[in-house]
Predict the structure.
Amino acid sequence: MAMAEPSIFHNLEIDDGRDPSVQEFIENTLAALINELSRSPAEANISITLKRRASPIACIINPTNGALEASTRVDTYRKYSWPGKTAHEAWKFTAKGLVAGEFRLIRDSHVLIDAQSVTGDSLIPRTEDGDEIDISRIRWVLVIEKEAVFHRLARISYQTRALAGEGIMVTGKGYPDFMTRTFLRAMSDSVSNQSRRPPRFYALTDGDPHGMAIMSTYKYGSAAHLHQNARLSIPRLQWLGLRVTDIIAVPEVLGDTALLSLTKRDRKKIMAMLRNSPVWASDGPEPEWRAELQRMLVLNLKAEIEILYGCQGGLEGWINRRMFRQE
Amino acid sequence: MSKQYLSRGSADNAHVIDIFSLAITDKQILSTSGASSIKVHSTTDADFPLVQSIDGAHTIGCHHIVTNGNGSRAITAGFDGEIKAWSCHDGHWAADKKLTADLTGADAWAIAISEDGQYLAGVTQEGRINVWDLAADGTRIRDHETKGSFGTCIDLSPDGRLIASGHEDGAVYIFTTETGRMPFSLSGLVNPVRAVAFSPKSRILAAAGDSKVIVLYDTSSGEQIANLSGHSAWILSLSWSDTGEYLLSSSFDGKVKVWSMETKACVATHSETDKAVWNAKWLPKIGKTEGFATAGANRSIAFYREATG
């Protein structure tokens, strides 16, 4: 099984292996696990309790690397249990991201994977420290919130047919796991070495609080794993859409029914985002994101990407136009 | 007959995020936005200087600000759900801590204040209409139920007799402040209503929103008097001139229109921006000339005056 978010081995903080407290911790943890594993499944409580580094509230955006990080050290503990307390937790332990497009994964100067656009979509490959991803032939990377939207675009090979040229599409199927973020970061890092016209990185999410929070997770990182964000954030990520205001501007094509009212939970989520995350602070890095959340509250509206299926030229036509506008 | 309004300057980038609401006193214009401060600009100086910035008024932004007739009191409603009170002495605004404390827990999305500043009316996200007596420690004196649709806008009639609210389901309700009864329900709009405004003599209620039409109702009978059509995008705000001769409307596509009540026709259209104009309001008359201010997603406040001679 692939270890996706949260990667417990990163959290163990083993420096040299000789620290007796580390040894002791590992032995105790292993003993407890083996003990629980030997019991009947109904009684077993297979879990590891780990110290986490910071509470999600006390965080800042690091100005040097554009990542969401802890501002002060606040110790908290969290218990990870198998197969997971909830469906959500179990789901976090399986690799889930998908990629479509042309790239080469290079490890120790050898081409490990040579993905061709024509082969369609596949699971995001596991990358290791030091891996390079060669995307020198593509013009754009599109990070897509929803799997269904990804499949719709992959079916028509949008990665080879976009007006903006060849590209790569990635989806983390909602909130992204570490492997998806690691893969995207490796692509972004490889672009930094590329001098001429680097490819653009775009995010395409729903025009609702979850879509905005997912985009923020890709760009700045997640509040739940602050110490990982510096090596996973993608500061170059641009917001392609969907804005609620995009849809209001073209109601003739889509009809006013394309818009949905916010639920009470949506409104609560937006207020919590505005209050708690420095990403949405009034003096923060993304005034447009803040304004969009506030416009949603004022209009009491949200919009799902799927409504673009019905616009002129379909979803792909809309993306073509939008990428052209942001070039 | 068309009228001409000329640009008389602007407070550029008055806020760093969309300006959602404007309030006017005889000498000042107050604005609130998605940023945390309330900005006060003078309207008596030709270049509309910033005279005060109340920083940190609402940490996560403020969507509504209203002032009473003589400009001594302002009430704001923030995105954090807080209602705050402000008072003005010699042109300087300060927090009214007592009244703000009195209003703790007061639930309202859109708000309106009576001409004399004594009553505050609010409509909640659940469509409930409340009235608080600000002279009696913010006691809630009225609580009206509607059908539960999001309350987007509210107004108190200048004569103090009526409250009107507009809702997301297209409903417009009128209540009498005296008895709390609903004399009639108003029909005509099916899409979300985003603005309601009583005329200065309280005889007409104007309502508008996503239907792109302004509907005028007779407040004594509830009958529709007229439909004003011409906007091609959602209408976000309405404001009556002092005399009630003209109605000002602003819309999502950046257009601002002036409507004559005599002819029931649009007499002027302004489109300085293609971004949403969240709010447009008439300014106090200077001599005989009328003017108005607009603000919205372009983050500036623009001022217009009627062309004379």
Q: What stands out?
A: Confidence is low (pLDDT under 50) at residues 1-15, 87-92 of chain A. The first strand of chain A starts at residue 46 and ends at 52. The radius of gyration of chain A is 21 Å.
